[in-house]
Fold this protein.
Amino acid sequence: MTERSRPNLLEAVNLHVRAGTYPAVRGVTAGFAPGEFTAVIGPNGAGKSTLLRALLGLSVPESGEVRLCGQALGHWPRAHRSSALAYLAQGEELPLATRVRDVVALGRGAGEWRWGLIPTRPWTEEDEAAVAEALERTDTLRFEHRRVSELSGGERQRVSLARALAARPRYLLLDEPTNHLDLAYALDVVRYVRCEVAGGLGVVAVLHDLNLAARADRVVLLHQGQVLAAGPPATVLTPAHLHEAYGVQVLVTHVAGRLVVVADD
Ligand SMILES: Nc1ncnc2c1ncn2[C@@H]1O[C@H](COP(=O)(O)OP(=O)(O)OP(=O)(O)O)[C@@H](O)[C@H]1O
């Protein structure tokens, strides 16, 4: 089955996006399917974050378009877009004095946070159930009453993940979700992501760690704003592609059945 023929696809179609005046994304075409974990990789400045923001409709393309379920993103009502596409931005700061459960509840989009939750619509049973489910799935329920300031970096990242999942999105877009996390927490994030993907969520994650990217279903390698390679990890994470993108010689091998990339300097 081709990417185009899949239903519910989030697609970039010949997308050109400027970051400021800089042409950061130059003619990217890529499809992201539900129930699939896609890692977006590439060297610093390759256009990864710009692509992610464009997929969310947070930046306007110069040309080309983003489509959700076959329709241009701009045609979907804003409320539909923000419930279908959840975002975990790079280095996102959580409100430190706020309790975990309240932070996760923010993901429901039922209010705004200004020194406390200002409701913009009535809280429903569905909201309550979605928050409980998100806390449970990310293993944050056990510290739901603690304040963010009392949590470690890895625990905060799980709370951010819970807040995103509370929206019950179709797609979760993550910008460097494992940044600053130790190995155990980084693997945790990937494990949670895999679990949600098995339940049908589409995940697009910008990752710098190529060995974490190797655990994705698909990898999109960006270089100078363009797709250098896309497909299953073994076809993208090759010495030739990685040398072209990063200018570094690497060895690609298998350890205990896993693909492993090692710098060969
Ligand atoms: N506001 C801006 N004005 C001018 N150039 C910008 C602006 N924002 C980003 N850029 C440039 O656009 C290019 C792509 O940036 P982007 O943040 O998308 O890259 P990235 O692949 O996510 O990088 P990193 O891995 O370093 O986070 C970079 O060269 C960056 O310097």
